[in-house]
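Q: Can I borrow your eye for a moment on a structure tokenisation matter? Would you mind producing a protein record, from residues through to fold? Write it directly below this note and I will take it from there.
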Amino acid sequence: MRYAMTTVGYARVSSTGQDLGVQLEKLEGAGCEKVFKEKRSGVDAGRPQLKRCLEYLREGDTLLVAKIDRLARSTSDLYRIISELSEKGVSFKVVDDPTIDTTSRTGKLVMGILALIAEFENDIRRERQMDGIAKARDRGVKFGRKPILVPDTIKHVRKLRKSGMTVPDIMRQTSLSKASVYRALSDASGR
């Protein structure tokens, strides 16, 4: 059981292709004795390493992140985490922005303002994305998976079956699933 105050780091990148190296260097350089790291989206609520990190922290510890957006992507998520840390008596600091330090009143204020700005920016980004999707739909752009069973494919599957080919052979030749082959064979529209 540990009793000494510990500086604990949390590092996160959004995808498996991104590198944690820069964050880890900053956290270790700032004196982190233990670092929890994960490769998941900040929007994703199921961040197991963050959960382990929050469970690991004890009164008197300090949680350190390289950048504030590595911890949370929304104000509500950020305040939930900071509130949980505060209830446990854990401090929170950001390496790249020393003004964010929950041990000072000014740091608490700055952190709250930055979190609100970040959420505002995410809302604007989401609005732009939805506008872009609406404009694309207006231009006739289709979203989602392309249909596998188009009329030509259905005709081809039926032709293969009429020639005596078995369903497994049709599956191998067309790279269709068993269900798709049977759907093509039983298509009632007679395409």
Remarks:
- The mean pLDDT is 85.
- The longest helix spans residues 105-138.
